[in-house]
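I am still getting used to backbone structure tokens and would like to learn alongside you. Would you supply a protein for us yourself, any chain you care to pick? Start from the sequence, derive the backbone structure tokens from it, and show both lines together. Go ahead whenever you are ready, and we will take it from there.
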Amino acid sequence: MTYKEIITDLKNKIYRPLYLLHGEEPYYIDEISDFIEENVLTDIEKEFNQSILYGRDVDIATIVSNAKRYPMMSNYQVVIVKEGQELDKIEDLASYIENPVTSTILVICYKYKKIDKRKKFAKDIEKKGVLFESAKMYDNQIPEWINNYLKEKKFKISQEATTLLADYLGNDLSKIVNEINKLIINIPENTNITPEHIEKNIGISKDFNVFELQKALGKKDILKSNQIINYFAANPRENPLVKISPILYSYFAKILTYHHLVDKSNNNVAAALGVNPYFIKDYTEATRFYPELKVRQVISLIREYDLKSKGVDSISATDGELMKELIYKIIH
């Protein structure tokens, strides 16, 4: 079942006796378990019929003991096991899974790990309840995810603003949602969100950010590149090299991919690079300034300075000094 199907069933009071929520992306695991915790029982029913357990503090026998209880003055009882990945031998639940108590809704949050879906244990869960995998999203999926999330909240967002958020917040969905929610609480519905909104409400500069640095480097705009990197050097906590280097690496890796494409039509380039067609012209322009050999050199430089930012052969250079050196070597 998908996340939306699970939530739709829960809203329609269609409950399963077991939900095992696993996977590397914690956001959807938290969303489903929080919905069950907050909505299945009334506040009065929760007092007697809702138990929150933690994997590090309980064993399988304790979970089964709680799950086998019958509800008091309610149709259901809810047992939620948070941090289920800390459980020792989760497969020991197999005997309960074969014959679960139908008046119990047992939810196990198994974060950052995956259950082997080929095994009988997983297949039995799917027969009796819900086995939901929350997969980690790739970086190139994040812009569309941001657009869809805001659309559901009745907001629009410009492509530049989407890219700005995606570049700065990465693929941590919980972090993205937290920042977006801080943003939209201060602006009216149906607003078309721009980089100016983001700068004012989240604090990511619309002029001095990694997205703008990429654009400046792609055009070999020395003045703009230096202005941005000087801003980063002056604000090292918000703009550490360890955060910037993976984004630059991804950018130049896309330029290298572009060089190797035979079919350079917009649709093919967009698919191969995993970018919005709106930005293809930026990559086309960048290839004029960065032939393949230079791109390979730049990628090697980014790797080198990423290691230096982590203390490898950096002597006593500050993060700001390393950033300035790197940008100078990329441009010249």
